[in-house]
């Protein structure tokens, strides 16, 4: 879609009876890139789906559509007569789909206004005004009466506006202030001046606004869970009044009742457990009873599943779903769109990303430093996609005000999303972005929502808390050493980039961690990363997150282009490679250990040796002996045993092999900074250029295996360093692929109490 075609889509939005300015007087929007779903957006058809699938009432009024807007200096009163123009809600004002596409600075306020007619209410009924999300601080007036204020850019909130209603047309006014860069609020990747991995700011209403008539006594919220060991679904109700709650399901023999505020359980015979392969959901009806009669009712659903960290049959901590080992693999999902920024054009567009994630052979997504409207998680529940949910990052850690905002909005996130069975992990911090009081935050999260795992921080600072140890490694893959208490995961890797002409945010200066120029080369590189990952699973890796679902602004390292028009790799090949990750983990055995965990002895020299230095019969007795690894302390991921500060180093060590391993693959365990050549019995078996930031497992071809001798063998290494950190350490491992009949089945576990048994 060409860059200015969005004008034709938005032009009808620019007409409003309260404005004399006609569409033809407006300048074309600079729509850099649009999605195919933009054509389905119109003032009377914009996010028309019911916004809260887990607590459904039939009567509601959608307030999405054209609103008046004005941008004024911060602190000024509401505009009286003169408004700037119209804006299409629920798209942020900076987005093309809003019809405005203007920034709002911290020195300004954004004002909204729209008129509405109040729907009919039941006797003594109330009218609730719901906002899906407003970024960041907002104040709401109805017919000139202030009804409340809210701070938090992602969580839904509600006001009871009944007492302000009039019979004729009502006026709703909203003011918004968003400090973005200068604020103390969680804001994810938003900045006023986008560059690199930081994207266009989002200000104001960006999720559905709606009215809901309710009875005098009504259900405010639900807390839905399950216990698969006992075969029950649990629901607790917060209500404005009433005596009791009745819970029923078509899959239960009979309903259950209990007092309002208590947990009500309903038994499910032979429950079908929720998983990515079988995302079964149980329909629920929740009724509120007062004075012996039903006064309110909502429809909901539940998925029965359990997530935990437990040792497998070989004593390695694994992520287990429903008592079975399940390797979790999926993309870093930013949730950004070129035409709507935080808000996709339609519900169908949002669903498309989830469908494609499954088609890529993935079973999980890490929702990155943002959370979505309820319907995104509904589709993950329904289609079967596990979710690791990040807390939007901000400046928390700078001061007490930032910490207070963070804690408040963290609780709001859990409250908003906790009923969704797809969410199996909370990630309170990404890397070091605002990370603070880690152990305290993790402890609070575990206590507040014991139904999920807590990953203390994805990447960077390891504080040893929670049940997940998470590292980032680009392009990777890599892993931290296995632990006695926590499962080991790779929270980010990959980032393989390729711009597709005509489908980028800008024509030049696009960015990726590693860049390729053809579909075939990109596919080969991706498949190679996943091939390297298989042995890591055997060593204890429990999950991995590939960067990323789609390109985002100047980042071009997506599986798809930013407009979702092109899958940038061979879909069949990448899906096949991904699905192999779920096979029974291979057995990985050290043949020649590295010094990663325990120092290993080598002969080494910094002086150019004679020809044949890599051969078995070379005499290295005059070389000094030293423990690996060799390099400078402080080099990322390095375990330095011997200082090496010259430009070149040559290494040799011998090892004995009693019998030739059959049915196995030889692989390197290697960390290098920078260029390295590796020889086995005089034959070169590997050459790597550049540097790594951690140890990697690199499968070798069959020719490397033929270089092994029964008896004594020589491993020789040459490494050259030019600048920055420097380090080299090398080992050999054997990889044995196994069928379920040859090894413990995926799901068989050590007979011991689970450290954590977490139900939903």
Give the helix/strand layout:
Layout: H1 6-10, E1 61-62, E2 65-73, E3 85-89, E4 108-116, E5 126-131, E6 134-135, E7 137-142, E8 145-151, E9 157-160, E10 170-177, E11 190-191, E12 199-200, E13 204-205, E14 209-214, E15 219-227, E16 232-239, E17 244-248, E18 256-259, E19 263-267, E20 282-290, E21 293-302, E22 306-311, E23 317-321, E24 324-325, E25 328-333, H2 347-359, E26 364-367, H3 374-383, E27 386-390, H4 400-417, E28 423-427, H5 438-448, E29 453-454, E30 468-473, E31 487-494, E32 496-497, E33 514-515, H6 519-539, E34 541-547, H7 571-580, E35 587-592, E36 601-605, E37 625-627, E38 630-631, E39 642-643, E40 648-657, E41 665-673, E42 675-680, E43 683-688, E44 696-699, H8 702-706, E45 711-720, E46 727-736, E47 758-759
Helix pairs in contact: 2-3, 6-7
Task: Describe this structure as you would to a colleague.
The longest helix is centred in the last third of the chain and has 21 residues, at 519-539. The chain is mainly beta. α2 runs parallel beside α3 and α6 (519-539) packs parallel to α7. The protein is 12% helix and 34% strand.
């Amino acid at each position: 879609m060409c860059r200015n075609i969005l004008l034709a889509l938005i032009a009808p939005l620019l007409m409003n009876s309260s404005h004399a300015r006609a569409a033809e007087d407006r300048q074309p929007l600079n729509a850099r890139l649009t999605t195919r779903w933009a054509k389905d957006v119109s003032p009377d058809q914009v996010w028309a789906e019911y916004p809260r699938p887990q607590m459904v009432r039939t009567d509601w009024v959608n307030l999405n559509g054209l609103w008046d807007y004005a941008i004024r200096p911060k602190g000024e009163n509401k505009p009286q007569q003169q408004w700037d123009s119209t804006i299409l809600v629920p798209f942020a004002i900076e987005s093309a789909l809003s019809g405005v596409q203007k920034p709002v600075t911290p020195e300004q306020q954004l004002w909204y206004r729209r008129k509405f007619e109040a729907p009919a209410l039941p006797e003594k009924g109330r009218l609730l005004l719901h906002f899906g999300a407003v970024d960041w601080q907002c104040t709401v007036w109805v017919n000139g009466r202030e009804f409340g204020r809210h701070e938090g850019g992602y969580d839904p909130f509600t006001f009871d506006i009944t007492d302000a209603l009039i019979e004729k047309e009502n006026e709703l006014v909203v003011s918004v202030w968003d400090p973005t860069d200068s604020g103390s609020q969680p804001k994810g990747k938003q900045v006023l001046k986008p560059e690199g991995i930081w994207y266009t700011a989002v200000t104001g209403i960006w999720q559905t606004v709606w009215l809901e008539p309710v009875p005098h006594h009504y259900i405010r919220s639900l807390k839905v869970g399950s216990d698969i060991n006992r075969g029950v679904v649990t629901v607790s109700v917060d209500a404005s009044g009433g005596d009791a709650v009745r819970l029923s399901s078509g899959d239960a023999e009979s309903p259950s009742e209990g007092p309002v505020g208590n947990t009500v359980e309903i038994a499910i015979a032979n429950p079908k457990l929720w998983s990515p392969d079988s995302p079964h959901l149980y329909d629920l009806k929740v009724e509120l009873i007062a004075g012996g009669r039903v006064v309110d009712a909502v429809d909901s659903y539940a998925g029965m599943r359990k997530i935990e960290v437990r040792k497998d049959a070989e004593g390695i901590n694994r992520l287990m779903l429903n008592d079975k080992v399940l390797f979790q693999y999926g993309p870093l999902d930013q949730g950004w769109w070129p035409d709507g920024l935080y808000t996709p054009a339609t519900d169908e567009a949002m669903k498309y990303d989830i469908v494609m994630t499954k088609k890529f052979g993935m079973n999980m997504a890490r929702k990155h430093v943002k959370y979505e409207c309820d319907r995104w998680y509904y589709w993950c529940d329904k289609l079967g996609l596990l979710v690791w949910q990040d807390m939007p990052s901000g400046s928390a850690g700078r001061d007490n005000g930032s910490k207070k905002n963070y804690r408040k909005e963290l609780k709001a996130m859990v409250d908003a999303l906790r009923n969704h069975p797809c969410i199996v992990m909370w990630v309170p911090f990404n890397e070091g972005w605002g990370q603070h009081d880690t152990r305290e935050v993790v402890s609070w999260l575990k206590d507040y929502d014991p139904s999920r795992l807590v990953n203390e921080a994805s990447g960077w600072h390891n504080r040893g808390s929670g049940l997940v140890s998470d590292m980032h490694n680009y392009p990777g893959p890599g892993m931290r050493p296995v632990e006695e208490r926590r499962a080991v995961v790779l929270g980010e890797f990959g980032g393989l980039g390729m711009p597709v002409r005509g489908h980028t945010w800008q024509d030049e200066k696009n960015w990726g961690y590693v860049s390729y120029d053809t579909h075939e080369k990109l596919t080969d590189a991706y498949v190679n990363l996943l091939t390297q990952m298989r042995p890591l699973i055997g060593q204890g890796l429990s999950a991995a997150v590939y960067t990323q679902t789609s390109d985002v602004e100047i980042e071009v390292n997506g599986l798809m282009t930013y407009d979702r028009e092109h899958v940038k790799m061979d879909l069949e090949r990448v899906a096949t490679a991904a699905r192999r990750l779920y096979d029974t983990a291979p057995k990985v055995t050290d043949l020649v250990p590295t010094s990663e965990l325990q120092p290993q002895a080598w002969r080494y020299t910094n002086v150019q040796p004679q020809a044949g230095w890599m051969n078995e019969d070379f005499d290295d007795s005059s070389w000094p002996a030293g423990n690996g690894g060799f390099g400078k302390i402080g080099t990322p991921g390095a375990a330095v045993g011997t200082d090496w500060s010259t430009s070149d180093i040559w290494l040799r060590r011998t090892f004995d092999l009693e019998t030739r391993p059959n049915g196995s693959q030889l692989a390197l365990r290697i960390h290098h900074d920078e260029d390295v050549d590796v020889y086995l019995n005089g034959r070169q078996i590997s050459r790597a250029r550049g540097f790594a930031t951690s140890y990697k497992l690199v499968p070798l071809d069959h020719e490397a295996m033929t270089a092994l001798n029964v008896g004594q063998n020589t491993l020789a290494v040459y490494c050259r360093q030019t600048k920055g950190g420097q380090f080299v350490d090398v080992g050999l491992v054997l990889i044995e692929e196994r069928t379920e009949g040859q090894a413990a089945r995926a799901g068989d576990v050590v007979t011991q109490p689970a450290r954590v048994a977490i139900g939903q």
